[in-house]
């Protein structure tokens, strides 16, 4: 299928995204605005380009945190949510579980309740104006140590905000092993929160095993190094552990995957691993959710039917009720049939 038809089909299909960092969906104009408000001068083109000149995970994470520091007023988060709302609209994402990383903001002295008030107001607006549902997973972060992560969790528990459905563990897995966060995750689980963790993004399969066994993570962010461990792949298949795969992110961070063509998601899928497709950090990796589906179709040979399975997988592995999962999957099927009815010339692609 040609690119224009593919994008038309993918735009018509309702989608979910399970691994995306809300702070990583921001426009050039938002970055320039908050920079100006922070430093009282215009950002130069060279400074802008410099923000995106990284070639590994650590370099990218530095830029991620640097931009968060440009935000000097809680109300400026509204700009971020306007960008996020546009992203959801453009990609027809009807349900999203997004990470929010509060640590950099809290270090500036921001009040967690005030942040959450603005964030929840923004989410209600997205729901009311666009009918799109966004739930929050608070990234307690491995970058700033165990005490900071526990502090983040305690703020979440005190806040008791219904939009927050879980916690996650982002940051560089090289410097923050899962075992350091055992107590944080145990406390979160006991309080009824969902728990997920980045693992196997740059460290080997033991890191994924630790996230599953020590933290009891319900889904794994990335998990691509599982591909080098055949016995572990069998375990993942048997347990139907969900991997939140972010293909372009892995190419950008340039550790396990050096080019898109060598991404292991097709091998994992073919072996029966429960994978979903996500973007991680759209602005930083210059990719949208529809782009990712196009990339794996074009570069890795996924068929259209397989893409439909992946789209449904994202709903099935989300933290919504079984009846909501069923409803969304039916809507995918309906939109699929309608699109092909309207594009009979493309039906040959299905055989
Ligand atoms: N935070 C934002 N993006 C991330 C990634 N790819 N890995 C770890 N932490 C992150
Ligand atoms: Zn991530």
TrEMBL record:
Molecular function per GO: deaminase activity; hydrolase activity, acting on carbon-nitrogen (but not peptide) bonds, in cyclic amidines; metal ion binding
Q: Which NCBIfam families match?
A: aden_deam
| Keywords assigned | Hydrolase, Metal-binding, Zinc
The source's superkingdom equals Bacteria
The protein's organism comes out as Treponema rectale
Domain Adenosine deaminase, by residue range, is 14-334
A single Pfam family it belongs to is: A_deaminase
* SUPFAM superfamilies from the UniProt entry: Metallo-dependent hydrolases
Which EC number(s) does UniProt give?
3.5.4.4
Name the family: Belongs to the metallo-dependent hydrolases superfamily. Adenosine and AMP deaminases family.
Keyword Hydrolase carried by entry: yes
Q: Output this protein's name.
A: Adenosine deaminase
User: Does the record bear Hydrolase in its keywords?
Assistant: yes
Gene3D superfamilies this protein is in?
Metal-dependent hydrolases
Q: Which cofactor does it need?
A: Zn(2+)
